[in-house]
Amino acid sequence: MALIINKMIGTGIFSTPSLILSLSGSIGLSLVLWVIGALVTFSGLSVYLEFGLAMPVNGGEKNYLQRVYRSPRGLVESIYAFQIVLLGFSSGNSYAFGRYLLFALGKHEVSEWLNRLVGCAVITVVIWLHIRHPYHGTRVFTVLGFIKVMILLLVVMLGLLVLTGFITLEDTAPNDNFKDIWSGSMTNNGYNVSVALLQVIYSFKGWENANYVLSEIKDPHRTLKIAAPLSVAIAALFYLLVILSYYLVIPSQEIKDSGVLIAGIYFRKIFGDTFSSRVLPLFISISNLGNVLAVSFSHARINRELALENLIPFAKCFSNLNYSLLLHWAVTVIVLVVPPNGDIYQLVINLYSYPGTWINALVAGGLIYLHFNREKEHWGNTDWRSHWTVCLVFLVSNLFLALFPFVPPPQSYDSGSYPYYLFPVTGCSVLLMGALYWCAMHRLSV
């Protein structure tokens, strides 16, 4: 349960609401997207539960894709391998850790490169901890999972106190944001809606985390059937309440301008520029650390599984877990350092989330195929079955997220320092690299 909560409650809920509100244009549409994100997450959880209970071993999507897409042999696994290795980084969480740490230290306006260097430092420390003290690493993110829930509970309680009048804000009318919640909605802009929903999905990422390391869980069936749904339900409920709390306290325009630091501004609005408004963002940075620990823990093990099946270059080297951890470190640092100045956080989380939409669509389509070919595929001997409508919701939503970022936004759209098509083109290019690598290896083996 701690593994799932640690990955779900990371930078997303403390950093993306500003971007989501800016893209959706209105309070009302952003709330709708958060609800849709929760529904998509639960549908995805159901799909992964059925696969995970049928195949309770390490690997996650790799195993599910292998089960369905058996011909041509190794193609879909190679595509997945390149996506998870090259774009399964911890850059967004590491960057947000640096932003909140510097904010807690009173440095509100700092160099972009200082944020990146702090991000590089934290992923370095995390990888060192996993290599030298693996047991302590897992204990740390178990404790941090509890701290994250406490932070979310504090945010919700403060919002409730503002709503009931027990806390009075000096410079903000608490309910101003709810006078006309649909004003400015970007309902006619498919690109904005799809990217906003993609960032909502990023905030919910982590519900599938247990599927990656089922071989290392004592009772995988109990974990998947009880801990996973409970973790997602807790996180989804807290997320919706936290978003409402943000909207009660911070004016909408100030939310849009806050960037990654919306939670820090939330605490400053309530406590002023006091010791409390410094300490609480520090706890948020610590919660981001827990996410970095959880992601690096699970993704390094996926990298090792892919190497053991010879699906990535230098497979013999990366079949060693320590080298797989170093591979995750290298990719994370490269993604933090290489992009030029700009809105790197939004770029990073889009790069992280986007390719997964294609993988999720393949997984959902594969389960639909198995349902309609049960006898032929010998499928259905598990104690969990996803209804076909749930599979369809997961499939259609991921196809929407995969295709609409290619639709040019209106000319009035401000893409910032990076062109709007950068992340979908990069994501698809990485998937194509996996296919080309498979072709090269297939020719060599003939």
UniProtKB/TrEMBL annotation:
The keyword Disulfide bond does not apply. Its main location: membrane. Pfam families: AA_permease_2 (PF13520). One of its GO terms (cellular component) is membrane. It is found in: Membrane. One of its GO terms (molecular function) is L-amino acid transmembrane transporter activity. The chain crosses the membrane at residues 31-53, 74-93, 113-131, 143-169, 228-249, 279-300, 321-339, 351-372, 384-406, 418-440. It comes from the Eukaryota. It is a multi-pass membrane protein. InterPro entries: AA/rel_permease1, AminoAcid_Transporter. Coiled coil: none annotated. Keywords: Membrane, Transmembrane, Transmembrane helix. This is Amino acid transporter. It comes from Cyberlindnera jadinii (strain ATCC 18201 / CBS 1600 / BCRC 20928 / JCM 3617 / NBRC 0987 / NRRL Y-1542).
